[in-house]
């Protein structure tokens, strides 16, 4: 057994200090640095399942650039497609053969996709979906669930987070929480917040306000805020209710899309929404998003604006990504590795007497400390999960060359992760658990 040494990261520290002088907070997204982190690791490159920092350290990466890197870093097929497109122009703002092919392909593989439309990010695509639902129904209000993130616009960034259950307010009438300075609170007047996984409450609200509610938006698996799976029948129930009350059902598949199945969580759970939004993994690392849905809603007269919509580089990357995912046994491989990792973590938790829950849905694995069963909803999660324990776990893992997201235990696998990566990761976790068992 070789002794594991903590990595040295002085150059990351120095580079961050310099970047801070010019770039607000020294990072390009507030999520690139954990709130209590002195400095983030500055990366130089990624290849396969690994990333490399400016000090020359290698890390097994489970952040996947927050989700897109489903094929790992620098996947050959995507690189080749992009290089080919570069010779034809980086942007054309026109109909192209690839655009036609991709649109056809998406309508073939995504159950709800009769028609598609494009944007550059999940945020924009969800904004577009809101507008489609409002145009189609002539109604304004949108139901959104506590702890679910759909983007950073004024209207989307409501009740995405909380530190204490008390902040969330009464279960039947949750508070609307705002998370950024400069956010206009009145934009949330048309947003109804509800706890997730509670069909009865959803029905009450839908029935009472059906004449005002245009859409209900949900992540089919609550990936962004805790490892929460839908209760059996919950998504199907939501589907039935939204039909009954003429409310557009939107699945935000920005994380689940392509990760749990080629056709998204709607295929995995066999529940077809009216509209669905895809981003992140759809182009394996290029800024790209698609809205897919029923023809009559997609064609309700909403303008699709955006200079960079359907950028040819992203379109080429997306086509190559889908072609790669269609080949071989990638989803089976995700299942095998996900099981290996989660079972291994659970076993280590038992050995070191650390309370945790860990599970996976294909390429998305999730870990939570302080709970031995999955959370039912965001309130349950906020109340019981040991978020400080998780933070400590992530910090230590990074010191030993494993990168996990700094918040809420989402672990992304890529097609480039190997059994060897998982075994090495479990070795590190074993070491961490032996070091922290008294603190958890
Ligand atoms: N929806 C979900 C479920 C997400 O996780 C995210 C990003 N974390 C978004 C929407 C927003 O996507 P983007 O960051 O591409 O704007």
From TrEMBL:
CDD domains: OAT_like (cd00610)
Keywords: Aminotransferase, Pyridoxal phosphate, Transferase
InterPro entries: Aminotrans_3, Aminotrans_3_PPA_site, PyrdxlP-dep_Trfase, PyrdxlP-dep_Trfase_major, PyrdxlP-dep_Trfase_small
Cofactor annotation: pyridoxal 5'-phosphate
SUPFAM superfamilies cross-referenced by the UniProt entry: PLP-dependent transferases
Pfam families cross-referenced by the UniProt entry: Aminotran_3
GO molecular function, one term: pyridoxal phosphate binding
Family indicated by similarity: Belongs to the class-III pyridoxal-phosphate-dependent aminotransferase family.
Protein name: Aminotransferase class-III
Origin species: Pelosinus fermentans B4
């Amino acid at each position: 057994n070789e002794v594991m040494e903590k990595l040295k990261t002085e150059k990351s520290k120095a580079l961050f200090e310099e970047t801070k002088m010019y770039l607000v907070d020294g990072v390009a997204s507030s999520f690139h640095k954990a709130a209590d982190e002195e400095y983030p690791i500055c990366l130089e490159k990624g290849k396969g399942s690994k990333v490399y920092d400016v000090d020359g350290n290698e890390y097994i990466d489970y952040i996947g650039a927050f989700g897109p890197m489903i094929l790992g870093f620098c996947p050959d097929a995507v690189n080749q497609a992009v290089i080919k497109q570069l010779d034809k122009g980086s942007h054309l703002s026109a109909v192209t053969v690839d655009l036609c092919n991709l649109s056809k392909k998406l309508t073939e593989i995504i159950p709800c996709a009769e028609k598609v439309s494009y944007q550059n990010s999940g945020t924009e695509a969800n904004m577009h979906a809101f507008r489609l639902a409002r145009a189609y129904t002539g109604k304004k209000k949108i139901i959104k669930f506590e702890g679910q993130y759909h983007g950073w616009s004024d209207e989307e960034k409501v009740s995405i987070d909380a530190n204490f259950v008390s902040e969330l307010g009464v279960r039947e009438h949750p508070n609307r929480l705002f998370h950024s300075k400069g956010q206009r609170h009145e934009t949330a007047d048309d947003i109804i917040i509800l706890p997730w996984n509670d069909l009865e409450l959803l029905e009450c609200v839908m029935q009472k306000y059906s004449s005002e509610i245009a859409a209900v938006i949900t992540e089919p698996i609550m990936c962004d805020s805790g490892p929460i799976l839908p209760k059996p029948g919950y998504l199907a129930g939501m589907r039935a209710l939204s039909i009954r009350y003429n409310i557009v059902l939107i699945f935000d598949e920005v994380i689940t899309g392509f990760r749990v199945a080629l056709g998204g969580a709607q295929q995995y759970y066999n529940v077809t929404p009216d509209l669905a939004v895809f981003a992140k993994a759809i182009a394996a690392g290029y800024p790209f998003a698609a809205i897919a849905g029923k023809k009559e809603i997609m064609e309700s007269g909403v303008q699709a604006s955006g200079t960079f919509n359907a950028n040819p580089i992203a379109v080429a990357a997306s086509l190559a990504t889908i072609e790669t995912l269609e080949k071989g046994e990638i989803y089976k491989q995700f299942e095998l590795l996900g099981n290996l990792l989660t079972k291994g973590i659970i076993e280590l938790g038992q050995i070191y007497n650390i309370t945790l829950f860990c599970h996976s849905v294909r390429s998305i694995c999730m870990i939570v400390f302080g709970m031995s069963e999955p959370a039912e909803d965001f309130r349950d999660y906020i109340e019981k999960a040991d978020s400080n324990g998780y933070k400590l776990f992530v910090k230590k893992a990074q010191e030993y060359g494993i990168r996990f997201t700094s918040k809420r235990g989402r672990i992304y696998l890529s097609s480039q992760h190997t059994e060897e990566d998982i075994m090495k990761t479990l070795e590190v976790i074993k070491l961490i658990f032996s070091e922290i068992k008294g603190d958890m």
